[in-house]
Design goal:
Elements lengths: L12 H11 L5 H10 L11 E2 L2 H9 L9 E7 L6 E11 L2 E8 L2 E8 L2 H13 L6 E9 L5 H11 L12 E5 L3 E6 L8 E8 L2 H12 L4 E9 L7
Antiparallel strand pairs: 1-2, 2-3, 3-4, 4-5, 6-9, 6-10, 7-8, 8-9
Helix pairs in contact: 1-3
């Protein structure tokens, strides 16, 4: 994405201090980085219905839509009326100079944990939106390690042997793989099924994707299931 940073606009230091005061603790290093660079405007990375800007966060707290909480900090306001689940940091699960991202309704209720870190949420979403869905052929499915163990411990070496690199380091619950032939993103929630992740694999044609899936399927400890081809494959091609 050429000149991406030219479309960003950061929050002011005063706005960052105000958010830190609401949090009642030092902000995670990544969140401070995000606010300094994209706290007013995310440019093409902006979400259609979720507002992660510093002014919106401060407005919501000023209007008492959310009460300051030592564990949870609202960082993204969701305007979708059908699913108004807002984004929060969960500081009880701080990791890698960041923290878990979870979702909940403004009126309360349970929390739905979505990513181990805010950095991973932004990176995974951007890779999907600006790369994977632009490729001509893709498939969606799931991986499961049969013994319920660490899926990435099995998946990473196989992908590396197939020529894939991981351009961005992530935690155990999502991954990004890229090669000249194909690209893939995997995901599971922070409290998902052990040894299980969904995936989207994309490339120029189905033959290349089938070769990758065939190699992964040869690993006896790994179960590979494909749920959908986009676009659908006609006559097996």
């Amino acid at each position: 994405m050429p000149d991406l940073q030219d479309a960003w606009k950061g929050a002011t230091e005063d706005e960052i201090v105000q958010i830190e005061t609401i949090a009642g603790r030092p902000l995670p290093r990544f969140y401070r980085w995000f606010l300094m660079r994209m706290g007013h405007e995310m440019g093409p990375l902006a979400y259609p219905t979720a507002d992660f800007s510093a002014p919106k966060v401060l407005e919501c707290y000023a209007r008492r839509m959310f009460a300051p909480n030592p564990r949870f900090l609202m960082i993204g306001y969701e305007s979708d009326e059908m699913m108004p689940l807002h984004f929060f940091y969960d500081f009880q699960h701080s990791v890698r100079e960041d923290a878990r991202v979870t979702k909940s309704h403004a009126l309360g209720g349970g929390f739905h944990h979505v990513f181990d870190t805010f950095r991973e949420k932004l990176t995974w979403g951007s890779f999907l939106a600006f790369h994977l869905i632009t490729l001509p052929q893709s498939c969606i499915g799931s991986f499961k390690r049969r013994d319920g163990g660490d899926l990435r411990a099995t998946l990473d070496p196989i992908m590396e042997s197939l020529g894939f690199v991981r351009p961005v380091e992530t935690g155990p619950n999502c991954a990004i793989y890229r090669s000249p032939q194909a690209s893939m993103a995997t995901y599971s929630g922070p409290e998902g099924l052990p040894g299980y992740q969904t995936f989207r694999l994309a490339g120029q044609d189905s033959a290349r994707l089938r070769r990758v899936l065939g190699q992964l399927g040869c690993e006896s400890s790994l179960r590979v299931e494909v749920d959908e081809w986009r676009p659908p494959i006609v006559n097996g091609v």
